[in-house]
Specification:
Elements (H helix, E strand, L loop, with lengths): L11 H17 L7 H12 L5 E5 L5 H9 L5 E6 L2 H10 L6 E5 L2 H9 L5 E6 L2 H4 L3 H6 L1 E9 L12 H12 L5 E6 L5 E6 L1
Parallel strand pairs: 1-2, 1-4, 2-3, 4-5
Antiparallel strand pairs: 5-7, 6-7
Helix pairs in contact: 1-3, 1-4, 2-3
The structure holds S-adenosylmethionine.
């Protein structure tokens, strides 16, 4: 199944893709896929930037990518980075003929260090894993274009959080509310979101 299939007016193509990804995640016991509320927001953000470049840190099985690809036009590009092959291979198989995606299998921190040395910058960075969110966040934010978006989710307690993780989240929210050169808003919605726009 491919997101290059033109979505039907009732969104059934996307719904089918999400159903496939949900079933695959259940088979793997993977419980960290994004929620639909965030997906709808991501789809709007990318739809506002035709021909845009978008980055997802942490592919999982591709649930966020499904929403991103549904909002992207044909000239847009998505880079999605994931450490675990058994997760990302689900996304690769689901979207394998979509030329808009570059799937990167590897450690997000290593990828971020290489990416900041390259010229490409992104209209939206969805930082959905440890690198870019809880460490090396400065690198991920450096990759956002002026007036681009930096998006964080899962700021409310989630299944599978390690012990003591709430303190990391509290620090993250506090740090993000006073970052020079950015406007940030905590949105008490969905899984707990933070939306940030670069000056
Ligand atoms: C919250 S999930 C991503 C969910 C996905 N963005 C979505 O919308 O459904 C976080 C993902 O980050 C991956 N991950 C963990 N450590 C990583 C690292 N160092 N580099 C890249 N990915 C990592 C995990 O394997 C997991 O799939």
């Amino acid at each position: 199944m491919s997101s290059t299939t033109r979505p039907t007016p009732d969104g059934s193509s996307l719904r089918q893709t999400l159903a496939v990804l949900t079933a695959a995640a259940e088979d793997l016991g993977f419980v960290q896929s994004s929620e639909g509320d965030l997906g709808r927001l991501l789809r709007l953000l990318v739809a506002s930037r035709p021909g845009g470049s978008f980055l997802e840190l942490g592919t999982g099985v591709g649930y966020g990518a499904a929403w991103l690809l549904d909002g992207m036009d044909a000239d847009s590009r998505l880079v999605s980075v994931e450490l675990e092959d058994d997760l990302q291979r689900i996304a690769r198989a689901t979207f394998d003929d979509d030329p808009r995606v570059e799937w990167v299998l590897g450690d997000g921190s290593e990828w971020l260090r290489e990416a900041v040395a390259r010229p490409e910058r992104f209209d939206v960075v969805f930082a959905d894993t440890w690198p870019g969110k809880y460490h090396d966040r400065d690198l991920a934010m450096e990759l956002v274009k002026p007036h681009g978006w930096f998006v964080l989710d899962d700021l409310y307690p989630q299944p599978g959080w390690p012990d003591g993780h709430q303190a990391n989240v509290d620090r993250l929210i506090a740090d993000m509310q006073s970052v020079d050169g950015w406007r940030t808003e905590f949105l008490p919605w969905g899984s707990g979101l933070m939306l940030c726009v670069r000056d």
